[in-house]
Amino acid sequence: MDKRFDLDDGIIKFFYKPDKNYSDELENVDDKQQNEFERLSTLELLNQASEAAEKNDFQKAKQLWEIAAKYGNDHAEYCLALCYLEGWDSEVNYNLAFKYFKRSAEKGNFRAEYYLAYCYEFGFGTEINSDLAFEWCQKSAEQDFVYAQYRLAHYYMLNPNLPVAANKTLFWFNKAAEQDYIPAIHMLGICYLNGIGDIKNFEKAIIFFQKAAENRYYPSIYKLGECYENGFGVIQDINKAIEFYQQASDGDYAEAQYKLAEFYENGKYLQQDFQKAVELYKQSAENEYPPAQNAYGWCFVVGKIVKQNMYEAVRWFKRAAKQGNMRAQYNLAICYEEGKGVLQDVDKAFYWHKLAAEQGDDRAQLHLGWAYMVGNGVKIDGFESFKWLKLSAEQGNSQAYTDLGYCYANSIGTKKDLQQAFNWYLKSAELNNLMAIYNVGCCYRHGDGVKKDTIKAIEWYQKGADLGSVDCMVSLAFMYEYGKGIKKDLEKAIEFYKLAYQNGEQSAQFMLDRKKIKKFIKKNVKVWFQIYYNSIFKLIWEQKCFRLYL
User: Fold this and answer.
1) Is 413 helix (H, G, I), strand (E, B) or coil?
2) pTM for the complete prediction?
3) Structural domains in the chain, sorted by start
């Protein structure tokens, strides 16, 4: 594995030289130009331009290409287009780049055909047109241009509904692989590993990955690690997997760095080491791997190894979010929503929540539902609120269950249906969602969507109170105070009011400050003190005994 594969090898830098001989004389040249360039043939112009380009003298190269391009030379037109595309001795000008690529491609220049497809695909100097991009890429591929063959295979792979897409994908990757194009060899491994059409063959995948790995192609080295980790086409061998991951990581391959970081963080296969984990997250993040950028950002949120710094967290979340990382988009949205590490901005929060929600993040879908419900960064829209909450609930988000129940109970985006509301509350309550537990208790207490049952109401309130729900504590206190479905017990009521206040419910203090409650407390304070004293004495005695046994 002495030879290291260079992804950029041959993409542009060897395209200056023409592939065929041209006429020795320029055609259709007026007398003035003929006198000036009478010693130069088309081939000489192109060769001199190529030599100048190799020396990075693009000013001279461009002048020579312009002369040859005036007389319709397709290679000169192609090279001139590259000048405008890359900004060599001129401002970047996509319109002129497209113009010259098109002229050259229409003369059958296979490189220009490939770049013209590129312009149509990404909208450089023209409107995006996927059909024309495909058409020109195919023309170039049919002329045996390896990069076009590789790209065409990707077109078919990304559009599986096209006729015989699976066969065409394999065909064009194979054509590129026959020219020893290493990324194509790797992609054949991917096709057989993941399955394309009805074809899945782990053993063949291993063969292609090994061939690419011999050329130090780190994506294939990483994939070999995955195969050994999971036993795909080989006997599972974690040590070998880690060896391959480490080799790819040493080659600065971001996915391998991220994978090892996860192992070190979670203590999976490797001894837990947060220091190494964070170092690897950083390396991977700096190599622009979005999941690592999100993970490294989170290190700054919680202060893992690095000093807690929300501004730095936001910086990394942004980098990942802009690359489309769903989790980073959600995290960034929360930062904007709460004003952490960035100025609070509900509009930006909505924007990033929406992007994450559209990718299927259930938490972002939940927040988007809330935004539409209350008008946070967007106009209030009950139907949109219901839609996003339902999508979140369908993914198992327990809070979304509760909020969907709220929509059914209050006719938000849907017809009022108290039974449906109760069903969603119950589903969430069974997952210990405190708000849902409280709502289920209320439904049983008032008979909303279910038969009235104060005993069950108290059971749910008690469960919620035990889990820390202040709403349940206050409700229990009220029922004990007035004997609603349970024996009246003012002492118990005071106990739950106090518990609610201690857990941050300010309204409970108002309940305790009422004349009736104060009078009861004053009357029973001596009895309570004796009970308290006895319990403390008992605790101290038990601790002394415990120490004696030690």
Assistant:
1) coil
2) 0.82
3) 1-143 (1.25.40.10), 144-251 (1.25.40.10), 324-395 (1.25.40.10)
Encoded amino acid at 206, one letter: I
Segments in 71-217 forming alpha helices (H): 74-86, 94-106, 110-122, 130-142, 146-158, 165-177, 182-194, 202-213
Helix (H, G, I), strand (E, B) or coil at 123: coil
φ and ψ at 35, to 5 degrees? -65, -40
* Closest C-alpha among 42, 49, 47 to residue 63: 49
pLDDT digits (tens, 9 = 90+) for 166-211: 999 999 999 999 999 999 999 999 999 999 877 899 999 999 999 9
pLDDT tens string 155-168: 999 998 888 999 99
What's at 102, amino acid-wise? K
Q: Which of 76-90, 222-236, 508-522 has the highest mean pLDDT?
A: 222-236
Angle 290-302/254-266 helices, nearest 10 degrees?
40
DSSP codes joined into one string, 471-531: HHHHHHHHHHHHTSSS---HHHHHHHHHHHHHTT-THHHHHHTSHHHHHHHHHHHHHHHHH
The helix (run of H) or strand (run of E) holding residue 257 is helix 254-266
- Alpha-helical regions (H) of 375-433: 382-394, 398-410, 418-429
